[in-house]
Amino acid sequence: MHKLKLNVIQACLSVGVIFLIASCSKQQPIASQPSVVSIDFKGYVAKNTDTVQLKINNTIIKEGTGSISALGNQIALSATNPTLVSIYKKGADTPLLKKTIPPSPFNQKFTFYYTGTSFTDKVDLIYPTDATKMGFRISFQSSFYTQPVDVVILVSYKPVGTSAFITQSVTTIRNVVANSFSDLFELPTPPHGDAPENGSYVFLIYKAGTTELYDPRATATGNFNGITKSAFKPGDTRLLVLKENSITTTLIRFTLTDISAYFK
Asked: In this predicted model, what pLDDT tens digit does every residue of 142-164 receive, in sequence order?
């Protein structure tokens, strides 16, 4: 009787071992499945005439100029071959950036700033030492002027009960070099009069070390698209790209783009 029970137990154990081995064999392919990651591209191309291409394993997933992004690209990584992310200037053979995608973390971000002559995938954000002010670094991009400039910052607002704007010089950011960001400068919240949008910071751009505008068409009239009170956040910081938007025989107008969110 005891021998019969022992044989039954041994038989059950044998079946259990066989079942376990079969189960492990069935699960083995699951463990070798490739990792999946989600990739966000965010960047800015400052030169209007340049187009940048975002690629994964040489497949173009997005191209453009100015602000460019491609979000939520879910990629299955090969278990045997590296999966590559690359960024190219359209028509160029040499990449501006090429990296192997790691298997983790799941959410990955690739950021960049391209001026047409220089490329970086990292720009340091520096915050103001005075929490009541906002920090700024500025880059000036011109289609025809490549020498250093001085950026004069003015505050413009319309006091309550008046019909005319007051424009006053606040500070000068000296020797801003093409294709790079200036040192940090800090500004208080701009004043305003009868409406919050009346207060803003605007810019004039001079040849470095002079009182001569970098171009006579770049007058104050063409610069009134600056930092408004509504966009002002004390204690925060901004990376500003100031560049020509339209050029006529009498006037140069500018666009001002904040790219700090790409590098946070």
From this structure: 989 999 999 999 888 887 777 78
